[in-house]
Automatic annotation (TrEMBL):
Protein name as it appears in the record: Acetyltransferase
Domain named N-acetyltransferase: residues: 15-181
Entries under PANTHER family matching the protein: GNAT-FAMILY ACETYLTRANSFERASE (PTHR43415:SF3), SPERMIDINE N(1)-ACETYLTRANSFERASE (PTHR43415)
Record-linked Gene3D superfamilies: 3.40.630.30
InterPro entries per UniProt: Acyl_CoA_acyltransferase, GNAT_dom
Length: 181
């Protein structure tokens, strides 16, 4: 599905959040690869589960055609610096919910891009009869957890010792959900 683009100005940085297009596929592949190498908050290490340009073109096409998927990008002066997705489910018993995920290049942290992806996604979900949004977040990512709680997400569960990070230690994954009753 597509949404109308919106412009933001945060701390002198102007950016647009808009729906992804097929023309974004190549840079999205590069942005995802770079994001994976900049933080351990994501599931993948850099290069794992790599999605190339054609893979992103398929995802964008499917998400655009689906009423239960949303693929957004953050555009700074025609340069994509992050993206988010809400992925629904074709199974009827789970068709009421979507899973939210987000990725922003580290040099653009602190400009509200992740927060605005979340707000745009919540607005889309609420106006499209999506009853539940879910997400998973690493237990050490307190800033994200607090943001999600601020926008109505609650902890639904904990996956204990779910990830092993570069320090050799295991960390929990927090499962969160937001309900639109």
């Amino acid at each position: 599905m597509k949404i109308a683009q919106r412009e933001y100005l945060v701390k002198d940085l102007s950016y647009i959040i808009r729906s992804a297009t097929a023309e974004d596929a190549k840079i999205l592949s590069e942005v995802r690869l770079r994001c994976d190498g900049e933080t351990e908050n994501l599931d993948r290490e850099q290069g794992e589960a790599y999605i190339d340009e054609s893979g992103f073109k398929r995802i964008i096409k499917d998400d655009t055609e689906s009423s239960s998927n949303l693929f957004l990008v953050a555009d700074v002066n025609d340069k994509i610096v992050g993206f988010s997705r809400c992925q629904g489910n074709i199974l009827k018993r789970m068709s009421h919910k979507v899973e939210f995920g987000v990725c922003v290049l580290k040099e653009y942290w602190g400009y509200g891009i992740g927060k605005n992806f979340l707000i745009e996604s919540i607005n889309w979900a609420d106006s499209n009869e999506i009853k539940k949004m879910t997400l998973s977040v690493l237990e050490t990512n307190e800033k994200a957890i607090n943001l999600y709680k601020k926008y109505g997400f609650e902890v639904e569960g904990i996956l204990k010792k779910d990830k092993i990070l570069s320090d050799g230690n295991y960390y929990n994954t927090i499962l969160m959900g937001r309900f639109n009753d």
